[in-house]
Design goal:
Blueprint: H1 11-14, E1 15-23, E2 28-36, E3 39-45, E4 48-55, H2 60-70, E5 80-85, H3 95-98, E6 106-111, E7 126-128, E8 153-154, H4 155-159, H5 161-168, H6 171-175, E9 179-184, E10 190-196, H7 199-212, E11 221-224, H8 230-239, E12 243-246, H9 252-261, E13 264-270, E14 273-278, E15 283-284
Parallel strand pairs: 3-6, 4-7, 8-15, 11-12, 12-13
Antiparallel strand pairs: 1-2, 3-4, 5-6, 9-10, 9-11, 13-14
């Protein structure tokens, strides 16, 4: 994928202006400033509303696919028969009255029944807020596959990826307030970058982009902003991503789960350094 296609967001989708009063030590001024758009996305699978994702608009199909597979609702991308998003129109003024139809805030998917694991309580719609993930603590005990594969990466390549991700951020560079997730190959080439108000959404968008396009994940590295939580590790393991690196810290459950499932987990990837917490055999010293 060429570098100009790495970031798939547009300013029109993600930002709007708001009047503010900017105060400094000796002066004040009134001006219009940018803020990041936050809207709900209703995800409907086989006629059943599965979740409402609070997200920054853009890459809705990728977000839906990444979420469904990484959360274990969908077995594989090949089980999708149809995925429909109404596009970049305005949100419906009354979502209940219009049922979300005609709104950019609704995704409908049809999947083969045997590939869909419906929630145990289908009458309860899950609201996935932008600041936290969807998985419950009990998910740590789920049966997840153990990662294998032969991916290795040079340490100097990995050390450059935090800056490489930051250089691709367009929304964060303008206004801040977003998380990012990027997928790289072993040579450090960026395949896709996604930004969102939620770090889990950003991961789902980036991985969903690859899933929809048949790009393998078993030989890629996932680099994210924010902390590495156990939800993030679960997503990576389900998707078969062998290396996850974050510019912030991991949690104890993330480290334990990564060690158990064979995931290479890296934290504090910034300032020319990193901490390798688990399965460092995939990272080659010079």
């Amino acid at each position: 994928m060429s570098s100009e296609n790495v970031n798939l967001l547009s300013e029109k989708e993600t930002l709007f202006t708001w009047p503010i009063r900017r105060v400094r030590a000796t002066e004040a001024e009134r001006l219009d400033d940018y803020v990041v758009v936050e809207e709900p996305l209703s995800l409907v699978v086989n006629g059943q509303q599965l979740a409402v994702l609070m997200r920054m608009p853009g890459q809705e199909k990728e977000l839906a696919v990444g979420f469904c597979i990484s959360e274990g609702y969908l077995r594989r991308v090949e089980d999708i028969l149809l995925i429909h998003h109404c596009g970049l129109g305005h949100p419906a003024p009354d979502a209940e009255e219009e049922g979300g139809l005609g709104s950019r805030n609704r995704i409908e998917m049809r999947v083969v029944p045997e590939g869909f694991s419906a929630p145990e309580t289908p009458e309860v719609v899950r609201l996935i807020r932008s600041g936290c993930g969807a998985a419950q603590v009990s998910a740590v005990g789920e049966t997840l596959p153990a990662l294998s594969g032969v991916l290795t990466v040079r340490a100097d390549v990995l050390l450059d990826l935090g800056k490489a991700m930051r250089d691709l951020q367009s929304v964060h560079r303008q206004v801040g307030g977003t998380h990012s997730a990027a997928l790289f190959d072993a040579a450090g080439r960026a395949l896709v970058l996604a930004e969102d108000i939620g770090r889990h959404n950003a991961v789902d968008k980036a991985t969903g982009h690859c899933l929809l396009r048949g790009v393998a994940l078993h030989d890629k590295m996932l680099v994210t902003s924010g902390r590495a939580s156990y939800e993030m590790v679960i997503k990576a393991v389900r998707l078969g991503v062998p290396i996850v690196a974050t510019i912030s810290a991991p949690t104890s459950l993330a480290v334990q789960l990564a060690q158990d499932r064979g995931l290479t987990l890296v934290g504090y990837l910034r300032g020319g350094r990193m901490n390798i917490y688990t399965h460092g055999e995939r990272i080659l010293a010079e």
